[in-house]
Amino acid sequence: MLKKLLVFCALSAAMAALMLPQTSSVIAAPDGKAIYDAKCAACHQPSGQGMPGTFPPLAGNKDVTGDAKSVIAAVAKGKSGALTVAGTAYNSSMPAWRGQLSDAEIAAVVTYVRSAWGNKASAVTEKQVSAVK
Ligand code: HEC
Questions:
Q1: Where do the structural domains in the chain lie, given as residue ranges?
Q2: What is the pTM of this model?
Q3: Number of other residues whose CB lies within 10 A of the CB of residue 26
Q4: Whole-angstrom distance between the N-terminal and C-terminal Cα of the chain?
Q5: Could you tell me if the CB of 108 is within 6 A of ligand 1?
Q6: What is the Cα–Cα distance from 110 to 79, expressed in whole angstroms?
Q7: Chain-wide mean pLDDT for the chain?
Q8: CB of 71 sitting under 6 A from ligand 1
Q9: Closest residue (by CA) to atom 9 of ligand 1?
């Protein structure tokens, strides 16, 4: 009887230990840098400098550090058409990220690009992303 109880306790402890890291990673907020590196860096480059004439830079880009709503809209709904960033013209298109990324993930990645590489703009919440239709 006692032995059975001990085995049961050991098993429960092992299961709890296995479940704990998973539970906490579900609760944790999405990692904006990890999303950027996986989904955005191929075009905008790991340090946000883009490719002149092809992919606009996000580092030092006034659109990115300006009105949060328009940055959210560009990322959530995609962006196309003529654009001038730091004196260089762009006229291409980026597909919408909504559908591929959750609103919480869009909030995390927009917060990251607004605060990385010397950019200094306010964080963006999931609520602000959901409000952009
Ligand atoms: C396939 C290449 C590609 C990927 C991947 C990509 N973008 Fe873009 N992005 C572009 C292009 C091209 C434009 C400019 C569109 C235009 O010319 O109007 C752009 C524009 C933008 C803009 C608007 C810049 C401005 O000055 O208005 C933001 C913000 C942005 N991207 C963020 C992101 C984020 C965040 C991700 C990752 C979730 C991402 N992009 C992934 C190609 C890409």
A1: 30-131
A2: 0.84
A3: 7
A4: 61
A5: no
A6: 14
A7: 88
A8: yes
A9: 94
Q: CA–CA separation, 45 vs 90, rounded Å?
A: 16
Closest CA to 79 of 48, 64, 102, 59: 64
What pLDDT band is residue 66 in, cutting at 50, 70 and 90?
very high
| DSSP tag of 30 | P
Ligand 1, closest atom to CA 91?
17
Cα 5 to middle of ligand 1, angstroms: 58
Q: Tell whether domain 30-131 is in CATH 3.90.550.10.
A: no
Regarding the beta carbon of 74 and ligand 1, being less than 6 Å apart is answered yes
The pLDDT-based confidence of 29 (bands split at 50, 70, 90) is: confident
For ligand 1, say whether the CB of 112 is within 6 Å of any of its atoms. Answer: no
Q: Whose CA is nearest to atom 39 of ligand 1?
A: 40
